[in-house]
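Hello forum,

I keep getting stuck at the same step: I have a sequence, I want structure tokens, and every attempt I make locally crashes halfway through. Rather than fight my setup again tonight, could one of you with a working pipeline run this one for me? It's a single chain of 314 residues.
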Amino acid sequence: MIDKLISKIIEKETPIVVGLDPRLEYLPQNLLDKYFKQDISLETAARAILDFNIEILNNIHDLIPAVKLQVAYYEMYGLPGLKTFIETANYAKSKGLIVIGDVKRNDIGSTAEAYSNAYIGYTPLYREYAQAFPVDMITVNPYLGTDGIKPFIDNCKRNNKGIFVLVKTSNPSSGEFQDLVTTDGYKVYEKVAQKVNDWGQDLIGNYGYSSVGAVIGATYPHQLSELRKLMPNVYFLVPGYGAQGGRAQDIMGGFDNRGLGSIINASRSIMCAYKNKPWKNQFNSREFGLASRAEVINMKDEIHKALISNKTYF
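Reply #2:
Ran it on my machine without issues. Output:
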């Protein structure tokens, strides 16, 4: 799976993954009026969000290799929201995109196996198997240790899937636990990084990277550089670009000398581009998809310039 992702990054000449993490307040008023004119319900909200997602995908799919769907933004609309999660994932895949399910699942034993089967495996039925959620890669939480991660790694091997393990997250309070120093002098996130590097050794592909990746926040550029040295075979999913404050120069430490090694996520800055400068002066609210496209192109240019200035490129 990691080879498939990297091949698409090279094909599209950009390491951008767009996060489709929708809330109703992100939708333009004309779309809200269209759906909520006569009916206010979870089903109506889910349909409006699907329409919003599809319009954005129609405008950006040719520019990017992947999308990331944060499941919480769909779960909050109940079963209709989960249906929209599935329909959005299927539509993105029909456009040739890799789909990352940002689900941050984990548990132990048979429960971890059930989570894994739901997203990157197959659910056993009566004499048959079914895929519950059509995603290619997911995020997982390593807090429960190796026996909580093994079922996910097993499904990566069996089903050509991938995972990104939380290592150093982008939120301001991540250091409360992740930066604690262990008895042997390492910080907790460094110990997790060592495990992630070990867990992925059997899944290294042709580009030298494993299908067991890591989540490293763009808001911590120094740690990003440190962790690239500590995890030479681990691909990074880097959230925090744009609305959370991450900039192009902040993420350069996650790349190797080929311009590979990281895929950079932006969500709100792209979904809500039509509300923000400079695009709100160039596009009306009905053209929100065009504004998202313009912001992806802008982000692509920013990252390319930073890669060239750092003497790395695809």
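The chain has twelve helices and ten strands. If your local run keeps crashing, start a new thread with the error log.
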